[in-house]
Amino acid sequence: MILNLEKKQDAPAPFVDLWPRLISAIIMIIAALVTLRVGGKLFVLFWVLAAAAVSWEWQSLICAQRAHLRSVLGVIGCALVAWLSWRHDVKGVFILIILAVLTLAGLAKQGRRLWAGGGMIYAALLVAGVCFLRLSPQHGLEGIAFLFAIVWGADIFAYFGGRLIGGPKLWPAVSAGKTWSGSIVGLICGALCGLLTIWLFSEMQLETFPTFLLGLSVALISQLGDLFESAVKRTFGVKDSSQLIPGHGGVMDRLDAFIFAVIYAALLGLVRSPRSVADGFFFW
Hints:
By secondary structure, the protein is an all-alpha fold. The protein has helices spanning 18-38, 40-62, 67-86, 90-107, 113-134, 140-165, 180-201, 208-235, 251-272, 277-282, and strands spanning 169-171, 175-179. It has ten helices and two strands; from the N terminus they run ααααααββαααα. Strands 1-2 form a two-stranded antiparallel sheet. Strand 1 (169-171) and strand 2 form a beta hairpin. The longest helix is centred in the C-terminal third of the chain and has 28 residues, at 208-235. The radius of gyration is 18 Å and the shape is globular.
């Protein structure tokens, strides 16, 4: 989420793209952390805007036919999903997502209908996931902070691990820059960052090794999210999802890893503890 330092590793000089990315990342990280700490409506609004941007980018990317209409409906759908998530109406959220998926798929041209519906799922589950986690009666703040630490940590250490160690590419057909060494370093260090966040900033009594394994699973899912978005862009022949962030691509480019991580965490928490998603995620 937000950092994505390891993207575009085909630059000729090491770290040539680090500073401009770092500056934009710092600004967005501050906004994410402030809204996380404040919580409530400000937090929900922040993520509604993020999900709306993701929905707009996706619909514009996959098909020009009725793209504006699909984008507007996607934004409205994300806002309604956030409202239902605020009320902890889990059933309502999933019914609304299904209806929105069918609507957007029907508005896309043949051959792009599954893509249009999939974009709604992608954006809506992002905002639903962060809301269900953060608005949990207990440990909601720790839940999101844990994900932030893992995703950001995995991205930073994968970037430096890949640049300094090098070696075989992870999946050159999808992402030319990523290496196995960077991925492995990112996985381990991301999980450790999550564990360190719990130790330093939470009073929860969690066992060390299970928490590390949980963090490792989140880091793995986040890397899959990064690869997924790269594959989508390759499919449609674009370099960035948009130019919403000048010089640094789009919101999807910044959030791809976090989207998969938060969906994974929220679904895991809902299955295990529907009334307190964060507890279901943390306590085994």
